[in-house]
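Project standup — Tuesday

K.O.: blocked on the structure for the chain from last sprint. Re-posting the sequence here as requested.
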Amino acid sequence: MDRSRAGYLEGIISVAVNSLLFVLKLWAGIVTGSIALTADAWHTLSDFLSSIIVIVAVKLSSRKPDKDHPFGHGRWEHIAALFIAFFLAIIAFDFLKDSIIQFKNHESTTFGTVAIVVTIISIVAKEALAQYAFYIGRKTGNVSIKADGWHHRTDALSSIIVLVGILFANQFWWIDSVLGAIISFMLFYATYQIAKEAINKLLGEQPSVELIEKIKQSIAHYSAEDMQLHHFHMHNYVGHQELTFHIKLESDLSIEEGHKIATDIENIIREKFGIMSTVHIEPQDFNHKSD
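H.V.: unblocked you, prediction finished:
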């Protein structure tokens, strides 16, 4: 699957669907005077903005490596995810504030058939968009598209909560303000999840235990246990990954022999895992302070 093309397509579909849903939800919120419905509408508009960010990020991250950026521009996807998280946090705070004010003023909301129909349409459409974004995210590994998927998912969940509130609005005067607060906390949680993943990738991650074991198995003919592979560090540039680690070799090996082993291991990792690696050689009896 072409990474850039898939990102563009997901973004364009999301923009189109969210534009329509925003108009429907905002209209229903104005007609009913519901904070929860209006909050849900602006949440949908934030999805629209996040999809615009995804499209821009795909464009920027697809640029070829240059003199100033030898590893490419793939990390624009992580930066885009942080922008999306920032938008979510602002929206969540605003809705929480409005919900508290409404609750203090003992304001109630009267819903109607229009609100029910619009909310059900929103639930179905947003969950469909979420599933599509998650699928594209899994296939391409694009963090910003995954973030967009979470944005769609939280919107679908918030619409479910609004629907439940509509059904019980006659029994509880405070239902709209409480639902608005619940949606706000959902948005805060989504913000945390999106920002956490993006920041971890920007800072650099420890390779997974599974990847390390697969690497050891791929060079088993060198007796990976005797080499004592350690100090693994992964540098993720989205479309390009760099792996560094240390190996220990017999002290009596020549520089040429050690270099040949390291180069062979780097070639195996590139061919089997698509990862560029740099292997640092150490003598068997050498100990790091962190060993």
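K.O.: great, moving the ticket to review. The chain has nine helices and three strands. Residues 201 and 236 are 6 Å apart (CA to CA).
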